[in-house]
Amino acid sequence: MSLPSLKMNETHDTSLRSWVQSANAENSSFPIQNLPYGVFRRSGSEEAFRAGVAIGDQILDLPAAQAAGAFSGFDEATRTAAHAACGGSSLNALMALTPAAWSALRLALSRLLRSGSAHQTELAACLVPQAQAEYDVPAVIGDYTDFYTSIHHATTIGKLFRPDNPLLPNYKWVPIGYHGRASSIAISGQQFRRPVGQTKAPDADLPTFGPCKRLDYELELGIFIGGGNALGEPVPMAQAEDKVFGLCLLNDWSARDVQAWEYQPLGPFLSKSFASTISPWIVTLEALAPYRCGWTRPADDPQPLPYLDAPTLRESGAFDIELEVLIQTAAMREAGSAPERLSLGNYRDAYWTVAQLVTHHTVNGCNLRPGDFFGSGTLSGPAPDQAGSLLELSGGGKAPLNLANGEKRVFLEDGDTIILRAVARRDGLPNIGFGEAAGTVLPARSLA
Amino acid sequence: MSLPSLKMNETHDTSLRSWVQSANAENSSFPIQNLPYGVFRRSGSEEAFRAGVAIGDQILDLPAAQAAGAFSGFDEATRTAAHAACGGSSLNALMALTPAAWSALRLALSRLLRSGSAHQTELAACLVPQAQAEYDVPAVIGDYTDFYTSIHHATTIGKLFRPDNPLLPNYKWVPIGYHGRASSIAISGQQFRRPVGQTKAPDADLPTFGPCKRLDYELELGIFIGGGNALGEPVPMAQAEDKVFGLCLLNDWSARDVQAWEYQPLGPFLSKSFASTISPWIVTLEALAPYRCGWTRPADDPQPLPYLDAPTLRESGAFDIELEVLIQTAAMREAGSAPERLSLGNYRDAYWTVAQLVTHHTVNGCNLRPGDFFGSGTLSGPAPDQAGSLLELSGGGKAPLNLANGEKRVFLEDGDTIILRAVARRDGLPNIGFGEAAGTVLPARSLA
């Protein structure tokens, strides 16, 4: 069985330091052991978006580094990967390569950016401060699939709809997923109008039309597919992680009242497709290797069917990634108050692993393409205050949350900003940060 | 209210004849009043796929026609549209233009291809016989949405699952839709392996894994979006048809046993994403203008909510398009027998119109992009033998269909080819044919 992503190498050495000093700060999200990819340009400029790597509070401009000859001394795999990364305004060409190529480029970047690098002088000229950058969605997303991998979320939501039968019979067998809307995925900083649509109150005879009254966020991780598979050629578990380029944050905003009225029998549609917000940086599976952990599946649950099983991944198929949701209301912003935490959870509590999602998605022959995107589904933990949505935190909209400034929230109000953050942490290891995915609700359009 | 697609013009003149003689045959699918677009190349060649227009049994090679100067005498709108159509291996750039531009190009093509055209000699050299061509999916499909617009299909399917409550309460209010998988959409001629997956028989305790046992087709029309809308800016009914480039055929192959086990609570997923087959030619709304008809909504059904209503479209928002499904089994192929008809229906029986689908899809602010694709959903008519799937024709898999050669079918067998055809017909008007969408089931991959 080939599990290259489990392999540790010199890029994981905890003693590595960067000549970009901000990367060495204890609380840096982007130490030299991270090296996530994104696409960026200088804020407000007309520059083309291009590939960059986060290092401390800076971005290494990859095309500029390539033009400066930074990769010319490396082997062909590295030069090919660098060339692919620098060819346009998205990372699809880099994603189309193999884990070996991704690993070669990561090793080169680690060597170029570490203290003592002979390339410090020319590369220092290729840095752009993150504070002066703006970002775009880092890949052309061909298809977006959203999963449902938190059994705690599925159970809590199920209880609201079916108190006597919260978890559907297929949940522990099938990694439930559905196709999502790719066109409305935008990068952190997205501001979107409160959606308008049809809803029907449970006690109403007829539906009505108007702005959503139960607007929610969903805390998810996003998974960017690399490589891909031909139509009709499934990806077995042993190769599944080879098809994963990396992870980011995803807020799958949801209009709960629209969802309740529209979702039978074919699933959520307009309740989700008005906006989805992702973080700019893609953290590679290789960077996350030291933060792997085993499945949390209870012993008396059914074991996965053989096509979804792999002994090695039982021990290491999950990831220990801390997940945080914060809110900043308009009133907080006006008062200059910092965002307030709504929940803190961890990705290790998901029921299905990344590899299982890839294998399940392709088992019928469905083809994945480089740049395709998965959502994990709302990541709620076992404790009520680890829930990844307001619908859960408010007990189905019945128990308002009390914010520190005296405001209350059942669902989102106009002007609310929701911020998702994630970080992989382990004692003795550097923090591998994901940055953040922030989005703000604007008032609904006028229906006059 | 602007409804340019209702306007008739000289391209609809029934007396027009083409110098391409095969276009004038009474049973031609592609008379000069049709002029559908596709992308093609010579079969088996390494040529780039490029835009073409079907005329009789020929294809006008658009880049070749442009290179021959055919469009140079036309106005700027026409030249711009021709330039967009000729710029690559997909029609997205042409689709990104406006109905006025599409109309200008159609007028030019009508004039160039009609009898007496001064361009006959140079354009005759730009024809490729359809018999010598192969086709590709004519657009890069950003997002694919499948709807559920046949109330007859929804009712029949609903009866199988809920005999006492066949039609869900939202059906007559909400044009139900869900996101589909774009990556596995392929062009007519697609051959695909029978999908493999998890299923659970109703009386079984546990799910099993293996080849699909209830493989089905779904007769649909496909809708290619042109123009588009910005995120947050809905398309009202009065502009909805301006966002539609044209229609084709779609077979949304379905694994019914996989679907039954996986679809709650988020809808169909792997039961659909293994393959979808479309026809090569996109028939424009302008070509279909003379075949419009009124809604068939019963008088005692609820009227559409105002955002989905438009008086003009009540009279003309539907299309009179005959829809046919044929099967050719392996035994028929070996015996040299022609395909056998399974059903004959009509698109006019759909409950929701194309314009309503566009407006509903965008009412929440969701953005559509040129090249996006909608499926109509399975188009079953009011009579049982007008059903658009085997699941319906076989009464839920209980009543086998008897084929003329003595074979029986409940669901699809390996080697079966399903052929969808469509034609808009009216007394005194030429037939506007859609060509066909054919696909063949191959045996499942080995699970040894």
Automatic annotation (TrEMBL), chains A, B:
Pathway given in the UniProt record: Amino-acid degradation; L-phenylalanine degradation; acetoacetate and fumarate from L-phenylalanine: step 6/6
UniProt GO molecular function: fumarylacetoacetase activity; metal ion binding
SUPFAM superfamilies xref list: FAH (SSF56529), Fumarylacetoacetate hydrolase, FAH, N-terminal domain (SSF63433)
Biological processes per GO annotation: homogentisate catabolic process; L-phenylalanine catabolic process; L-tyrosine catabolic process
Annotated Pfam families: FAA_hydrolase, FAA_hydrolase_N
Membrane-spanning residues: none
Required co-factors: Ca(2+); Mg(2+)
InterPro entries named among the record's database cross-references: Fumarylacetoacetase (IPR005959), Fumarylacetoacetase-like_C (IPR011234), Fumarylacetoacetase_C_sf (IPR036663), Fumarylacetoacetase_N (IPR015377), Fumarylacetoacetase_N_sf (IPR036462)
Domain annotation Fumarylacetoacetase-like C-terminal: ranges: 171-440
Binding residues for substrate: Y148, R162, Q259, Y263, T378
Top-level taxon in the UniProt lineage: Bacteria
Binding positions (Ca(2+)): D146, E218, E220, D252
Annotated catalytic residues: H153 (proton acceptor)
EC number(s) from the headed UniProt entry: 3.7.1.2
Domain Fumarylacetoacetase N-terminal stretches: 33-138
Protein name in the entry: fumarylacetoacetase
Organism: Herbaspirillum aquaticum
